[in-house]
């Protein structure tokens, strides 16, 4: 068996080792670039011209449907 100094040394190692690893591996500088890259892959920046074309197409379709409804109402009257 060991003396009380050995036990204190082991206990200090048991506490210090996980805390030191936690401190080292939780540095934002180590994984910030990876997080930003992954977010950009999952959620790419929106293309505003493509979105504008999409919304214009929806408005044209809605306008055509509205015009068709008005014509159908006029015919029924």
Task: Give the arrangement of secondary structure elements.
Layout lengths: L3 H22 L2 H15 L5 H29 L1
Q: Would you give an account of this structure?
A:
The protein is rod-shaped, with a radius of gyration of 33 Å. With 77 residues, it is mainly alpha-helical. It has 2 domains: 1-45, no CATH class; 47-77. It starts with a helix and ends with a helix. It has helices at 4-25, 28-42, 48-76. The mean pLDDT is 90. InterPro entries: Pet100. Keywords: Membrane, Mitochondrion, Transit peptide, Transmembrane, Transmembrane helix. This is Protein PET100 homolog, mitochondrial. GO terms for molecular function: unfolded protein binding. It comes from Zophobas morio.
Care to give the gist of this entry?
The protein is an all-alpha fold. The chain contains 3 helices and no strands. The longest helix has 29 residues, at 48-76.
């Amino acid at each position: 068996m060991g003396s009380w100094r050995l036990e204190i040394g082991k206990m200090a190692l048991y506490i210090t080792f996980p805390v030191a690893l936690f401190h080292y591996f939780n540095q934002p500088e180590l994984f910030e670039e990876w997080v930003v890259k992954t977010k950009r892959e999952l959620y790419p920046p929106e293309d505003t011209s493509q979105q504008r074309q999409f919304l214009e197409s929806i408005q044209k379709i809605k306008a055509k449907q509205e015009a068709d409804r008005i014509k159908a109402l006029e015919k029924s009257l």
